[in-house]
Design brief:
The chain is of the alpha/beta class and 316 residues long. The chain has 3 domains: 107 residues, Cobalt-precorrin-4 Transmethylase, domain 1 (3-Layer(aba) Sandwich), CATH 3.40.1010; 85 residues, 3-Layer(aba) Sandwich (Rossmann fold); 89 residues, 4-hydroxy-3-methylbut-2-enyl diphosphate reductase, catalytic domain (Cobalt-precorrin-4 Transmethylase, domain 1, 3-Layer(aba) Sandwich). The protein contains 11 helices and 13 strands. The longest helix has 17 residues. It is flat, with a radius of gyration of 21 Å.
């Protein structure tokens, strides 16, 4: 009999966003249509469970196109987006390729092109070396000024009286990004903003869901990956909004039970690149060891849906 009772505050919405759903579906559909193997450049999304599952189905993950052994096989670009040099290289190699870039990332690519046409200096708020940032910076020939924090804004050597524009990575902390934008507007007199917020709906919704319940939780667990920006941001948000402790859980089978000693309340969510199945499996694991009470408020279901590209649809 499990006598140690734990309340689990379940955040909602959580788990896969529309861009991740679409990217995974594209790999699965390509495997159905073309058989094994289908190559995928970079992790299709930042989640080991997803990557291993697709490997078992016949996907081969590569870092660069020159690793493709059989040029007659299709290749898919990851949801994070790629620099323009990548499709150019694919064309040169005569590869059949499909681009799984999230449409909300593609929107930022178009913004950057538009700002370049206007000869505007462009600031990108984002994380150095993240695939999405590399992809965005590789959309245009002009240089893009990358800033990660307010200090980086201070160090920018741009004319403060000249019109400038900014864009952001889609998976940033909503709160931190607001502060960086404030710093940009304080330093420069004429700032052009994206027409619509660049931080995606799923990142925003998941952070808001964590904020609502964090202060109820002695420990907050985020199911996600160490190389996933949106996962790490959720861990930071939970801590900032009152969770006693905040932990990123990459492997649900290997969690340390000692975490729950003398603990009566935990928060639980999954990042936009982590599947709901991991949340349910983890709850089942906890039920074997503890007396669990699940607490979940009603939340608005996300109804965003991105269709797979016409090129792949036609091939299917």
């Amino acid at each position: 009999m499990n006598t140690h009772q734990i309340k689990i505050y379940l955040a909602g919405p959580r788990g896969f966003c529309a861009g991740v759903d679409r990217a995974i579906l594209m790999v699965e559909e390509a495997l159905k249509k073309y058989g094994n193997p289908v190559y995928v450049r970079h992790e299709i999304v930042h989640n080991k469970y997803v990557v291993e599952d697709l490997k078992e189905k016949g996907a081969i993950f590569i870092d660069e196109l020159n690793e493709i052994k059989d040029l007659s096989r299709p290749v898919i670009f990851s949801a994070h987006g790629v620099p323009k040099s990548v499709p150019d290289e694919a064309k040169n190699l005569n590869l059949l390729y499909f681009d799984a870039t999230c449409p909300l990332v593609s929107k930022i690519h178009r913004e950057v092109e538009n700002f370049e046409k206007q000869n505007l200096p462009i600031i990108l708020i984002g994380h150095h070396n993240h695939p999405e940032v590399i992809g965005t910076m590789g959309q245009i020939k002009s240089s893009i000024h990358l800033v990660e924090n307010e200090k980086d804004v201070e160090l920018l050597k741009l004319d403060k009286n000249k019109k400038i524009a900014y864009v952001t990575q889609t998976t940033l902390s909503v709160d931190e990004t607001k502060e960086i934008i404030k710093a940009i507007k304080k330093k420069f007199n004429d700032v052009i903003e994206p027409r619509k917020n660049d931080i995606c709906y799923a990142t925003t919704n998941r952070q808001e869901a964590v904020k609502k319940i964090a202060s109820n939780c002695e420990v907050f667990l985020v199911i996600g990956a160490y190389n996933s920006s949106n996962s790490i941001r959720l861990v930071e948000v939970a801590k900032k909004y009152g969770a006693g402790k905040s932990i990123l859980l990459e492997n649900i089978e290997q969690f340390d039970e000692k975490i729950f000693k003398n603990i009566n309340s935990i928060g639980l969510t999954a990042s936009a690149s982590a599947p709901e199945i991991l949340v349910q499996k983890f709850i089942e694991l906890l039920k074997k060891k503890f007396d669990i009470e699940l607490i979940q408020d009603d939340f608005i279901k996300e109804d965003v849906n991105f269709k797979i590209p016409q090129k792949l649809k036609e091939a299917i």
